[in-house]
Hints:
Helices cover 22% and strands 24% of the residues. The protein has seven helices and 18 strands.
Amino acid sequence: MEKKTKKTKKNLWSRATNDAPRSSRVSSQKVAANLVIDHLGRALAPMISKYVDIDEDGAVDANELERFAERVGGVENVGKGFTSAVLAALTATWGDAESGGQHNRPIEKTPCALEFNRGLSTGAELEVTSDVQFKGVKPFCVEAWVKPSDAETTRNGFQGYGGAIFAKKMSDEMHPDDDETDVLLMDEDQKKGGKNVGRGQFTFALDDAGGLTFMRETGLTTALRSKRHLKPNSYTHVAASYGFGDASIFINGTLDATRKEGAILRGDDVTPLTIGMLLDRKGRSRLGFTGTIQEVRLWNRPCDKESMKRYYERRLVGWEPGLTAYWPMNDCFGKILAEKRGEYRGRVTGRAAWRRNGHHLMTDDDIELCKHLAKGVIDESLA
């Protein structure tokens, strides 16, 4: 029986020059090409494979490949989706242009965010969330990091500042594509108090003046409004909360506005939760947000000063007490938003764009690193 010879590990020179003698000089283009091939096989291939290998068992079957295609928006978009996966792997391995040339910079240091645009009907519908209920005086809190874009910075057309951030609400506004028949049916439905009129339970949004609004469907005719306004083109942490009879809005971890409110009047097991838009009765995007959104969290308890201080500047693990759902929105490619607890993934609608301009949050790795920094030393990589 033949003995298997142990494969010797090649050094960098051998890999870059195809085993040329160390005393020789080799074409720079050949060295560069070999380094690219070497890196593809040694570093990028394992990084890229995690996007295709859904169950992470080291092999891919036809079902997994179809699920990968679905994640990137269908078979016709696989090429584009795979390019995005390569770019995500490159960022995770080498870092991007914003990293100042720091190789092997972790992807957490340059997080992604999803760019929404009202003019492109961008939004995210969260699957199997129609049965998530807020009827009565059920406590809850929703929070996110948002970066609203103004007319000067919005790509591909500007159709209004602000928009819906997070909601369980169906828009009853007419759509530009509605014809006369649609208008007549809507009027008739409103007269009869039809099931599609005013359906939903709450809306958390940014108005066109930069103020936050939180509207629970309690019978009140006006929304709770923030006192402060958000600055365009910069990240702000926002939260809307209800519990113990108090509706509240938080900005950057501090209480901004509050008032007493009663119960949400109706149940709703039809309207799904949405990020960055409302849906109308035909499932079309309305009141779309213009700008980027990331780190969306839904809690089954009200937020308060202590919980804001503990969590709002940190990336979550996913099993924090009271956390119902968590969408980091740092997928970096595709049209599916992962939900950290695995129950309510999101599906992006319209023309969405992933941007590597997300807001940096502290992670457990950052905290561990801080423990080992000398007193008075600033870790510039976390700035």
